[in-house]
Amino acid sequence: MTTNLPTRHIVLPGTTNFRDLGGYVGHAGRSVRWRVLFRSDHLAGLTPESLSTLKSLGIQRSADFRGVQERTVDAYAWQGLHTHALTVEPTVVQKAIALIHAGGSLSVADTVVLMQETYRSFVRENAAQFAQLFRLLLEEDAPTVFHCTAGKDRTGWAAALILEALGVAKADIEHDYLLTNQFYQRPAAMAARAALAVPQEVLDVLWRVQPGFLESAYAMVQREHGGMQSYLREVMQLDDAAQHALRARYLQA
Fold first, then answer.
1. Where is the Tyrosine specific protein phosphatases domain (predicted)?
2. What topology is assigned to 19-250 in CATH?
3. pTM for this entry
4. DSSP-derived secondary structure letter, 6
5. How far apart, in whole angstroms, are the C-alpha atoms of residue 23 and residue 35?
6. How far apart are CA 250 and CA 253, in angstroms?
């Protein structure tokens, strides 16, 4: 049997990792609505064709998790797109390059540890920014895209939290998270600059995602809050009414 479901990965020149969160089965068997929640790498390189596609999708808001310098280097201000800066400063790449420049060495195992530390920082130090995303989503159900630079780590954790709040199964959340490895392509100039300082095998860790990265965040949530539901309530400030409102807006009736 064939279906006519919308496409999850949307070809949007200027991005490589622009995806729809729709279709995953959530609370009470209701699926996440298509074409209202999007995740992406940064939007600074969008072409006129891409902007036309963005308009046709009805996207009116972007939530930008990039740090200050990232937003300065790759700035965008697209007509009709209201941008919200939810600043989460990147640390792992800077730590890696600084260590190598100081004469140290960085193994694949070291890099994995750095990535896991980064994800744990999302849970605790950067919780306010992710909670702010939920406040935006509760204001109105206008189609929204949230992103960072590559759309993999900060964006990946944001997507996991949204899907958790909508009652999507952990296996589906991990599946969505790992799709970055299928779609994201590093810009050639960025890859060349990074390769001058960082070994290729380390870059492969930095620019891809692994189940263990996401799991390190989940483990901290479990350890410090007793589980995701408590974390959503206590830290993301999603009480019963807020979760009901999210599900009413972003799940199929």
1. 128-197
2. Protein-Tyrosine Phosphatase; Chain A (3.90.190)
3. 0.94
4. P
5. 10
6. 9
